[in-house]
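Protein modeling request. Please complete all fields; requests missing the sequence field cannot be processed.
Requester role: graduate student
Desired output: 3D structure, token encoding
Chains: 1
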Amino acid sequence: MNDKVEDLLIKINQQAKIIDNAVKNNQQFRYKSHQKLILETGKPFLERVDPTPFQGKPKNCFQNCFEALLEYPKLIYCEGYATDDSLPIAVLHAWLVNDEFEVIDPTWNNKATTECTYFGVALNHEFVIDFSIKTKHYGILDSDYLNDYQLLKSGFPEGALYTKFHSQYK
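Delivered output (170 residues):
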């Protein structure tokens, strides 16, 4: 792993520890935070390519990626945490990847965000679409509360993770 990924993992771990200390022990939940869920199931995404023709709206990563996924079904929807050299924290974020697992980020696609680092999960299309229909929101982790915190309670359900990237979940 490279230094930028290590720095991002440190940031995610710091956020998870803050939440772990703030949340009372809840036996129903396997994870106290989405950070812990992503740290356990996520992977680094190391390569980034030009997002053209994707030009999403700033601060709308979940919607940008969901809409791009519908238009370009060969791409893979991802969620997790990301940062760049200017951010002191890890930010909950969505991005897309191609068959080579190269990041295509329609939201952070300007020169100010060229040095981004990503750590998260690649999700199957059906799971993303079904979850969004069920919750009536874009985004998976950010909308888990609308799904009775099932991701925190049990982790990702069978078939949710894209197994070509998450081979341990086959």
